[in-house]
Structures are given as structure tokens and as C-alpha cells.
From TrEMBL:
SUPFAM superfamilies: Protein kinase-like (PK-like). The keyword Kinase applies. Component of the EKC/KEOPS complex that is required for the formation of a threonylcarbamoyl group on adenosine at position 37 (t(6)A37) in tRNAs that read codons beginning with adenine. The complex is probably involved in the transfer of the threonylcarbamoyl moiety of threonylcarbamoyl-AMP (TC-AMP) to the N6 group of A37. BUD32 has ATPase activity in the context of the EKC/KEOPS complex and likely plays a supporting role to the catalytic subunit KAE1. The EKC/KEOPS complex also promotes both telomere uncapping and telomere elongation. This is EKC/KEOPS complex subunit BUD32. Pfam families: Pkinase. The keyword Kinase applies. Component of the EKC/KEOPS complex composed of at least BUD32, CGI121, GON7, KAE1 and PCC1; the whole complex dimerizes. It catalyses: L-threonyl-[protein] + ATP = O-phospho-L-threonyl-[protein] + ADP + H(+); L-seryl-[protein] + ATP = O-phospho-L-seryl-[protein] + ADP + H(+). Residues 115-360 form the Protein kinase domain. One of its GO terms (molecular function) is protein serine/threonine kinase activity. InterPro entries: Kinase-like_dom_sf, Prot_kinase_dom, Ser/Thr_Kinases-Pseudokinases, Tyr_kinase_AS.
Amino acid sequence: MDLSKQAQSATQLAAHAALPITMLSIVARFIRVSFLTAVWQFAAGQCAIAWNTVLKLTGRRPKPPCAPIPQKPSVPRHILYRPIPGPWRRNEEPELPESAYQIPDDMPYGTICYVTKGRRVGRGATTHVEQLPSGHIVKYPKSNPYHPEEEEGHRRDMRTEVDVYRRIGDCPYVPRLIDWHPESCCLTLEYLENGDLGTFVTKEGGISAHVRQRWTLQAAAALKALHAVNVVHCDVTQRNFMLDGDLNLRIADFAGSSIARSMPTIAAGPRFRPPGWNWQQKAERAHDIFALGSVMYFIMVGVEPLSDLPEYEVERLFKAGRFPAVGHLVCGSVIWDCWDGKLDSAEQVMESLTASYAAA
């Protein structure tokens, strides 16, 4: 073996011999640091105990540790309204136990209990609709303690609705106003026996051509009465026309309407909106007239315009000016002119309908 290889072997042996010494140094340092940390923690703990003892002896209260700031509970994604029978129910079902009339203490988060005023006959987006024992219809706003601003919006809509009824007064084309309570925003209206037009047409068969023609004229007359007092309905659809016992048509549900050019809080679906409509636009009477064309189509045909297509496709076709075929209908030209914008007032619609029916 030459001298260079002997030197290399000696170096390797020295390195292996030094490795245990280095590891021992690291372990010793780690133990020393851990020991110092433990001593520091013990000393700090003793100081804290001594300080709290001093505070107690001097009559002061130790400052509690900082607690996390409670987070404001989020608004539930879904609200469930649970009806609780009101006193009116006792006469109808005297066998109900007293517990049925009590609001439970442990309601799940997102559930809102309310005491009913009558039997439910409808459901609005912002209101409860019930029939009182007297037979009249009562509407009152939905409460929402999770979102007070939203609840106030519901109450505002009810104030808008009663304002419309007061503006229009006694009119054969709207339900009769019976009572109004401003504190609870509770509106009472006359009961119309045959419900809404959409449900009636869907369920009933054999509606005569004469009745259908009368409905189109009454729908146009109802809009004429609204527009005359500077109200744009903004949600002219078959579900918002009601039928009395004699099958006469009346327009209803003005909670989201525009009064004197105010911004509405509701809009009809795409089949009842003119092309290019958006929420930034002011409400126009022409918007109601377009929707009237779609309602008259429903009255005459029994289904909504382009009912077999999804709404996005309806919007696309309406924007391109492509509406359902109406040439076979006795009032088809009037419906088309409502959609095409040639008729811009309810009075013009009435005149055109009268002329079409007279010529048939």
C-alpha cells in the first residue's frame, strides 16, 4: 500500500471517530435548550399565579383571557315557515289539544313560526294568503327575524298594494278592498270563488269561445283602469287574474307594481317580457301591453307562448322577433300587435279586440 492510500484511510477513520462526538454535542445542546424552556415556562406560570394572588388581595379581579369575538350568525339559505293555528281554528276543530296553539321553544335554525289568521288558500313570495272565517281573503307580510331588511321590504310591498287599491277605488276589474291595518300591514280583500285564471283554465275544460273573448276584453279593461291612475302592474300573467262566481275577470296582486314611475320590485317571466327588458329600465305601460298579448294567447290557446321550450330559448326567439303563430286565432292580429309594439295602450287593445270580434 502506498503512502497516499494510507493517508486517505487515516482521514476516513478520523471522520468516523468524530461522528459520535458531534452527535453527542447536538443531543446535549437540545437537552440544554429544552431544560431552559421548561424553566422559563415554570417561572412564567409562577409569576402569573403570584400576580393573580396580588390582584385578589387588593380587591381587583384578574383580567380574563381574550375570548374570540363571536361571529354574527349567517342568514339561513332556506327559510321554512311553520304555521301555528290561530284562535279561529278552535271553532272548527275543538278537539285539538292546547299544545297545538303554542309556539315551540326549540325551533330549528331557519324555521319561522307564525300564527295563522285563516285557512291557507295561496302562497306568495313575500306574503301569506289565507281565507278568514268571514270568507274574505287576508294577505299579510312574511316575517323574517334573520333578515330585518328583507322583512321591511315585504311590508313595503303590502303598503304599495293598498296604495294601488286606494288609487283605483271602486272598480269592476279589481277585487274589492275590505280592510287595511297599517301597523301589521294586513290587507283584507273580497273572496273570488273561482280562483286564478291560470289554474281555472288548466283544470276546466269546455270553456266557450264567448267566455274566452270576454276575458280578453276584461283583461285589457283592467289594465286600462290601472294605467289611468299611473300604475304599471309589472307582473301581468294569468295567475294574477282572478275569477268571481260569474267568471268575470279581475286583476290582482299589486305588491311589486310601479306607482308614478317608481321602481318595481317584481317582474314577469320571459314569456311575458318584451325583448331587451332589464331591471335597470323604468316600468312602462308598453311592458304591460306586451304581457297582455301573452295572457290573451293563454286565454285563447290554453298554454303559455312557446310552452314547450326552455325560458332561455324563449328569450332568444322573442329577441329575434319570432313569436308563436296566431293567425288562426280570432284575435290573433291583436295579440301579435301587442308583441310587436304596434299597440301601446290598453284602450287601443280594447278597440282592436272589439273590431276583431265584430268582424268574425
